Amino acid sequence: MNHPRRNLTSTVSKILLTVFFISFGFVMGIVYQRKLEAKNECGVSKHEYTVFIEKKRFKPAKVKAKRCNKLIFANKDSKLHSVVFGTHDNHVPYGDFVQEYLLPKERVSLKLFQAGTYLFHDHLHEEIKGQIIVDSN
């Protein structure tokens, strides 16, 4: 026997869940759109900074740059390295940049579109750490 009250509760739960997912998707879309707009307004990079990975360290380990500049990670070592933003236990994506594996002599670049102070590290070699400070211009 179907109980009208149980059916009503089930229907209300489904509606609330649907509203939650639609709202969540809407908010995430706004966040993504704002990041995309900030990235696109930069245009062509005027300056670029290269951080070399060699001898178990980043050189330089601390970089000060401006928004819309370009940051390059270059592996000058003979080992595989993995560049990640955040701490070893808490990776934080920087725009589209999540984690990059670099073979010896490989490089990867990204545009610095978001101001702030960011830690980065080599996830394969935990002791290799660095920091970038991105000024808003």
UniProtKB/TrEMBL annotation:
It holds the Pfam family Cupredoxin_1. Keywords: Membrane, Transmembrane, Transmembrane helix. Coiled coil: none annotated. InterPro entries: Cupredoxin, EfeO_Cupredoxin. This is EfeO-type cupredoxin-like domain-containing protein. It comes from the Bacteria. Signal peptide: none annotated. The chain crosses the membrane at residues 12-32. Residues 45-134 form the EfeO-type cupredoxin-like domain.
